[in-house]
Structure formats: C-alpha cells, structure tokens
Fold this protein.
Amino acid sequence: MINNKSYALILPLLAMLLPATAFSIDDSAHEKKGLAIAIETDRRDAGFGDSSASLEMILRNRHGETSERLLRNKTLEVTNDGDKVIIIFDTPRDVKGTAFLSFTHKLEPDDQWLYLPALKRVKRIASRNKAGPFMGSEFAYEDISSQEVEKYSYRYIKDETFDGRDHFIIERDPVDPRSGYKRQRVWIDKAEYRIWKIDFYDRKDSLLKTLSYDDYNQYLKKFWRANIMEMINHQTGKSTRLNWTDFSFKNGFSEKEFTKSALKKSR
Amino acid sequence: MNNKNNNSFAHRYSQWVVRWRWPIVILTLALAIGAGSGVKNLGFNTDYRVFFSEDNPQMQAFEALQRTYTKVDNILFTLAPRDDADVFTPSTLAAVEQVTEQAWLLPFALRVDSISNFQHTVAEGDDLIVEDLVFDALNLDQAALDNIKAVALSEPALHKRLVANEGGTTGINVTFQLPGKAMDEVPIAAAAARALAAEIEANYPIDVHLVGMMMMNNSFMESSQNDMASLVPIMYLVIIIITFFLVRSFSATIGTLIIIVMSVITAMGIAGWLGVKLTPPSASAPTIIMTLVVADSIHILATLLALMRNGTEKRAAIAESLRINLSPVFLTSITTAIGFLSLNFSDSPPFHDLGNITAIGVMAAFVYSVTFLPAFLAIMPLKVSQRPDRMTLAMDRLASVVVKRRKSILWSSVIVSLIILSFIPRIELNDDFVAYFDTSTDYRQDVDFTTANLTGIYQLQYSLPTHSSNGISDPEFLAELDAFSQWLRSQPEVMHVNTISDTFKRLNKNLHGDDNAWYRLPESRALAAQYLLLYELSLPYGLDLNNQLNVDKSSTQVIATLDNMTSKQLRDIALRGEQWLAENTRNSRAIGVGPGIMFAYISERNITSMLGGTFAAVILISFIIMFALRSFKIGMLSLIPNLLPAGLAFGIWGLMVGQVNMAVSMVAGMSLGIVVDDTVHFLSKYLRARREKGMDAEAAVRHAFSSVGVAIVMTSVILVAGFMVLAQSTFGLNSQMALLTGIAIVMAIIADLLLLPALLMRLDTKKLTIKTKKQAIIKNATQGDNA
C-alpha cells in the first residue's frame, strides 16, 4: 500500500535517477568528440602517398627467451579504402625472399598473398585471420593494418597528461564482429594527434595487451612515425618489440608493384 | 585413595583448577575464540601442484616445459548427443559452435580448440583456403556434413582427441592462463564452464561432461568442502553417541563436545593465522582431531566416574582424576603429536599441514582437557548411574584366558603375524590422480565417461630440442620427429599423438593441389620454414603455434594422450619413449613429463622421505616410553606392539586390496603416535604392579587388564569409529589413509591385549624386589587406574 509517506521515500530515489538521464545526453556528446578526434588523427596522416621502412621484430616470452626477424615494408596509400602493403622477409634465413602482399579493406576481409621462393609460387591466403597473430607475434593483423576511421565506433573518455604531453583518451569499439577485441583505449596527444598508447581488451573485456609507441619522428614536415612499438601481452607475459628504421616517403611506388605477379620480383 | 602425593605438583594443580573453575572456564573459552578467529584466514588451495615439493624433479621438469609452451591448465567439454548416432548433425555441430564461441568468454580463457574452429586447410588452384572446419552448422547440407565427418575422422589432430573414434562424441578444449592473483580463480572459471554446460544441455539434446586439470583442481576444493560438510557432522553424531554410551552422563558428554569444538577451532584458527591453505588432506584434520580429543577426555572421565561410583564426592573426584591422569594424558598427547609431526618429512606439502594442524589440535586438546574439562565439570551437575561394571568383569575373564593360554597365544600370534606380514609385498603403489576421487563425485563420473567415450585424461609430453634457432624446419629433425610420433602411435597405451610433423605433411599436400601423394614431410629446410610461415600467417585469433613450438622454433612439443593406466604403466611408457629418443635420434633427448607422471612417482618419493620421518618418530617415541617407564627392556619390548600394527595393516591391505596410493607412506608414523597410547597405559599399570606390589608377571598382567583394559577398549572403539568416518571421504588419499590407520588401531588393540601380555609373561620373568621410588612421571602414570 502506497501512502503519502511512501511517496516521500520514493521521490528522492526518483531524483537520484535523473543524473542517469543526463549521462545519456553526455554519452552522445562524448561519442561525437571521440569521432572528431579519430577523424582529425586520420586527416593528419592522410596524403603520405607511399612509404617504406625496415623493421626488426623481437619476440620475447615470459622467461626472456627471444627470437628475432628482419623485414622490409612498403606501403601504398589508397584513398577511400585500406592501404596496400608488401612485407619482405630477410631473416630467418630459411624464409629469406618470402614476400607478403596485403590489400587491406575498411570493412571486408583483407586480400592476402604470399610468395614462397622455395616453391616458386604465389599462394593466396583465404582466411578469417584478421584477429590472428602476425607471424607468431603479439601483434594481430588488425593491430598493424591501416587504421581507418570506419573500423570503429568511438567515444571520448577524458584528458590525461603524462611525459609532459596533454592527451585525449578515447575508446573505440571494433565494428567487425570478427575482431579479437571488445574495445580499445587509445591515448592521443593533443598537439600532434599521435597515438602513444593503446590498451586492448579481449572479447571477455579483460585487459589483454598494451601497445606503447616511442621515439616519434616527423617526415616531410607532416607525417609522424614511431621508431619503437612495444606490445605486451598481460595474460601470457609475452611481448613483441618492433624497431623501425629507414623510413622513406614519396618513393614513387605504383599500383603495378603491389600486384600478385609483381610479388615474385620483390626483393 | 592416595595420600602420598598431597604436595606434588599434580596434586596442587588439581586443587587449583577446582578452586578457580570459573576464571578457568572463561579464560580457556576466550583463548579458543581468540585462536579460532584465525579461521577466517583459511582458504582452499586449488592447484594440484601443491602436492609436490619445490624440489620434486618430475615437477621441475614439467614446470620447465610449461614455461616454454602454452600451459595445459584446461577444461575439456565432452559433448555427447543423447539420441543421434554421431555428432555430425546440424544441431550438435551448432552446439559445438556455440560452446566454441562462448568458451572464449570464460574467465581466464586463453585458447579454445574444437572440431568447429579447427583450421582446416584445402587447396583451390593457387589459393590456400584456411578456414573453420564447421561454420554456420544449422545451414549445412548433407554433403557438407559428410565432408566434415570425413575430415574430422581422418585428421590426426582431431581423431580420438576432439572427436571420438566413431564420431559418437566430441570435445571442446579450453586452455586457461590463470593470473594467480586470487584464490578463487579456479572456482570462478569452473562455475562459468558449468553454467555454459548447463545452457547447452537445456537447449540441445546433448549431455555435457566437464573434465581437465581445472576441473580436477576445482574438485580438490569441492572434495575438501564436501568432506568437511558431510564428515564432520557424522563425526559429531558418532562422538555424542559413543561418549554418552560410555560415560552415561549428560554433563560429561556436553563437556567433551565443547572441548572438541575448542580444540578443532584452536587448531584450524592457528592454521589460519599461519596462512595455511586447505587441501583435502589438511581438511581432514578436524575429523582426526575430534577423534583424538575424545580419547583424552575419556581417560579423565572414566577415572572420575569410577571414583564417584565408589562414593567419592564430585569435586574431590575431579581433582583426584585430574591428578592421576595429568601425566599419562600429557605423555600420550606428546607421542601422538610426534607421530603427526613426522608427516613434515613427507615430500608432499599438504601432509605437512595435516600433521602440524593435528599436532596443534592434540596439544590444544591436552590443555583444554586439564583446564576447561575439570573446571567445567566442577560447575555442572554430575550424576553417575550405579550399574554393575560388566566390562571390567569381561576384562578379568579375558585376562584369565590370556594367562592360561599364553603359549598358544604367543605362538599363534607370531605365526599369524608372519603370514599377514608376508602379504606386504603384494601391495602395489598406484597414484592414479583420477582414482583419488570417489566414483560418487561429478568429476570422477565425467572423467570415466570421457575416457570411455572420447579420449584419455593422462597426457605425456616430450619437448624435443633441435639445438639451433628455427631448427624444427630441418628435414632430418622432422623425419626423427615423425618417426617418434609414429612410434608413440604404435604403442598400445597411446590413444592420440599431437605433433607438428602432421601439420607439415598436411601443408605439403595442400600446397600440391591436395594430392594425397604429397602427404609427406617437405624435402628442404627452406620449404618447411616457408610452409610454417604461411600457416602461421593464416591462423586466427588465439590459435597460435605456441602450444607446439617455442618462441625460437628451436624445439617442439609432442603430446601423447594415454588410456587409463596405473602409475607403473605410466612410468613404463614414459621411460620407453625416453629410451626410443636416445636410441633413434641424433641428439633429441627428452624426458616424458606431465601431471600423471608427477603423481606416478609421488608414492616412491613420499615413502623415501617418510622413512626418515617415521624412523625419527620411532626413536623419539621409544625414548619417551623408556624414560616414562624407566625401563630399557620394557621400552624395547614395547616396540613390538607399537610397530607391528602398521605392518599388519599393510599386510591385510596387501591381502584384501593390493593397490594403495601415497597415503600409505604416512600411516606408519601417524598410527604409531596413536597406538602407542594403549601400550603406555597397559605397561605402566603392569610395571606398577610388578614394582610396587611385587607381583609376578602373571599377576601383574591380570592387574593391568582389570585396571586399564576397559579404558583401552573404549578409546580404541572411539578411534576406530573416527577413522571409519574419515574413511568415507570421497577423496582417496584421505579414505585410504583413514582405513589403513583404522586397521592399524584394531591390530594394536589385539596386540596390546593378547600378544603384549604373552610376551611379558614369557620374557619378563625376573623377580623384582619391591621398590618405593616416587618419581612423578611413573608414579602418576601408574596410578591412572580406576581399581
């Protein structure tokens, strides 16, 4: 039975619910701000045309055992879709000359080919491996493939200052259900819109990995590239470090170099 | 009754206890509550590795392997369709897909392997298709289902591991990586897995069984909890009934019960303060303590009631009983504690906890029995029934029989003992960790079902080194690896072998247009390495190769899944594998490891380590007896009825059962501490009669019978009842330990009442002059009679 006294009790409870409504208004504002930050980040890196770099990949397990490999990377910027990428393997010796071609896409699965010199054949890999590990490392394909705005939905979380920089913290949820992640938390500096850190949360929303960027350099007075990327898997204790060198832009790469038939000649 | 010791410590102490009864009751209760508050710190250990010491070599080898490859902490979901002949129906495969999908979301899940997410590779022109074997099962046509069946039943990575021989059941294996931060990680993961299993059973006509190391760890905890929840109440009931039957007094029964509760919570509380985490063995400590406490109280109560029956006033009787029993109860408590402390020599840490907790409980029981119990009884009303003491009369008759037929008793005892002892070699040590769990437990039933219908529980792991970076691509090594895998498959005990050499063969075939002629190892090192790179690049989330290869690709792990077998067979197959590698490879030496192997060696290790512990306990206890009885000869003689019972228990076990687990190694030390009490009581009465009353051996035996015979039988009945309750444990280490100890106690009472007097009358024939020594220990020990 509800009498006046009960109302007196219920009213404050109702009042407590009001801020929750206010939150949902807030949510939409945060989503807009998050998206705006992502678009600005993307805009600032647009127009690089093509790039190449050398890469040292160091895999390390919980107990410090390591394994190293050397790769070279060529990227061709594609407007309105994901970039085209060639990766050439220099070491280990057994896989020297093996070349990997990938057409990354915004939402559909990427197209991938691998040239096997020992077999002298190019094989197309038809796989749902987007969330899979890249060469046994702690990086998944989706972590290293080109970051398109459309791949996520965003929300702004808060600001944070560290290492003398002001950052936005945004969270992004992968749109693709095949993604290995439920969400990612990204630290982007306010001055140059460079990503400094990403926390990856797995499908059960526990912290899986942290990717840290370091030693950023600017190229062509516009494009920032980090020389060091370190991915730590918190669940297995394994980590992978990428040491980038020899960044080079505007190499004049053409579409023809990024084809299945050209892959055999990649050296 | 005795006025010579009015000024002795025991006498003054007894008077003091009765005078300060109220403060004593309050203080001891406060003490028990204070110590007992540590109970809140007690948690359950949920890792089977706790059964192994840090320096256990099998454990070290296993841990080294687990550091290199993905851990094998897993839950295997066994899905058994209720009606269909096999699992290759849209509905069952949909269930497999659902479990596979949702298992990724289980807490701490790292990896999920099933027939649905098995990465099936096929060639299509120059394309290598790498995809889930089952996708969108509900919309598959019969041709697709037939294809899936054909692939699953012929794929060596799946057949008899994740799909049954004929396809009747299928498994989904979930690998976990526990952060190791909280004590409840295992139960959280197990509860989530059970919820998922229940959801599948509710929505599909499928039975789900959960096995794997995580479920076993969880069962360790559940077994402890069930034992505590079911055995402890039974124990209380048994104690109430027996105590009341023996003492026929409401107050005395209540007093005994309170002492039991105080002793148990004191011991468990101190264990909590010391940070002990409970395991099934240490969780049995309360039951054992309860049993031992009653034995203490019974001695004091029996004397007290006998005094009152003979007309002594209550408080005087309390003081007198306490005075008489102070030393014997202290003595027997010390020897019992020493027996349990000998468990610290075990190679298996949970038994250290059991020994220490019980020793603490026994000493706490001594303290409460000589403080709280008399003080409490001094406060409570106490009445005795005036009934004829039939039991004492029966003892007198037994004494006459023993005296009359001493020769035949002696010789038949020797012959029967030798016959029983001759069965000890029939004991076969077997630590099948699955069999630790009673067939009434869910875990055991699920394991039995899975073993009968899908795959084995025991895994044998070999890490084959190549001694060079990326060396696993070396064709010579691959040939050796393949030969080893084939050899393992040809062994009768082996159900399944997981090896990377199969993957190389399959890829070689795929990259040659799926031509079966190419189902063989790649010929060159570069080819093998590039196949592996191609395969690695195509694997989806979570399904990396780290469960088979190390980071540097310089070593690979071969996992053999074995049929149910004994420890001996397990050690045998592991050694055969090691030997094969030594004889047939250039330098790929490896030892076979795994949880099963760790348990297969645990008995031997514990027996070796417990030999030292038991020996130390024998020496110490014998020394205490000699000191207390002030006789080297009688002390040596006492070794026979003290050590023989454990030996006879093993012999009877060898005759009736045969297989025994590592609990056997604990029984000798533990039972020694318990059975020695009866010997001490009997011998002290015997010696008193010989020394002070100048009786010959025959008369002294009669005297001992009539003064302590009843008390010995009473305490033995309680002890046997207590250990029989513990023998009902669903956990095999506890039940076998309790059963063996129970048998040893029965043997002890037979030895004490038949063999010991016969031996005394045969060997102790020297005439003794009447001595009048009045040293406290022996004096009091010899006066613990109610005659």
Observations:
- Chain B is about 60% helix and 10% strand.
- Chain B touches chain A through 49 residues (CB under 8 Å).
